[in-house]
Amino acid sequence: xxxxxxxxxxxxxxxxxxxxxxxxxxxxxxxxxxxxxxxxxxxxxxxxxxxxxxxxxxxxxxxxxxxxxxxxxxxxxxxxxxxxxxxxxxxxxxxxxxxxxxxxxxxxxxxxxxxxxxxxxxxxxxxxxxxxxxxxxxxxxxxxxxxxxxxxxxxxxxxxxxxxxxxxxxxxxxxxxxxxxxxxxxxxxxxxxxxxxxxxxxxxxxxxxxxxxxxxxxxxxxxxxxxxxxxxxxxxxxxxxxxxxxxxxxxxxxxxxxxxxxxxxxxxxxxxxxxxxxxxxxxxxxxxxxxxxxxxxxxxxxxxxxxx
Length: 308
Description:
Elements: E1 5-10, H1 18-32, E2 36-41, H2 47-55, E3 61-66, H3 68-79, E4 87-91, H4 97-102, H5 108-116, E5 120-128, E6 131-133, E7 136-140, H6 145-148, H7 151-157, H8 161-169, H9 172-176, E8 181-187, E9 190-196, E10 198-202, E11 206-207, E12 211-212, E13 225-230, H10 236-247, E14 256-261, E15 264-268, E16 274-276, E17 279-280, E18 286-299
Parallel strand pairs: 1-2, 1-3, 3-4
Antiparallel strand pairs: 5-6, 5-18, 7-10, 7-16, 8-9, 8-15, 10-13, 11-12, 13-14, 15-18, 16-17
Helix pairs in contact: 1-5, 2-3
């Protein structure tokens, strides 16, 4: 990558203390290579969006160091710019599903070197009412675990915290999402109306480290997202049984539906909590979903998940 001006947005609270060390590594690598850069460090939710929105236009590249939530905020800021800037991602969070899908290395120096190589791919962005998300929007069983699990626990235990916190410390979480919600869902190919225990709109091969999709079913810049719907989870054992079916890509078309769509409208019979890239996305009754086709550029290596 030619010598360009870089805005580095760093979340020092993300991950198992890697971001704190990462700040020094990033400074070291960028300084050694002679790049012109500035660093903004987040201290609260929403900072990354504000930094990208307020300062991003003055830089050639926006570099995000943190977890999926920090990347989500950064993308929301970049999407508001009159001229969007390419985004580099240094994954230091506890899950980092998108980094896994994109094969972005978790080693900070290797991730910086990938960004410096100037290899880029376009990536579709989901529009969720007045918000944006990059790889998943979900509701129902387990969706709240990502944003209700304490950050300290995630930093120490990583993905395991999402199981330990609800099962050991807050079992009510497990039962709170079991009550299905009635929804009318309009998608590209028709209308479905029923009671659903879980739903996810995704653009990734991995969701929360639990759900994985066949790579042949996913393209990251084809203008289509994947829609997974689950009917009638009767209890925790049944939930695990259904999760096993999803992991095996056993979509029966009745209890488990797997679809592709560009547009989506959902009307719930009551306010329903959503998770957007692992962060709380509000409790709307109506959801209007669309796609910003190839909405951003991400620094990432060659990958068969991208359409050329």
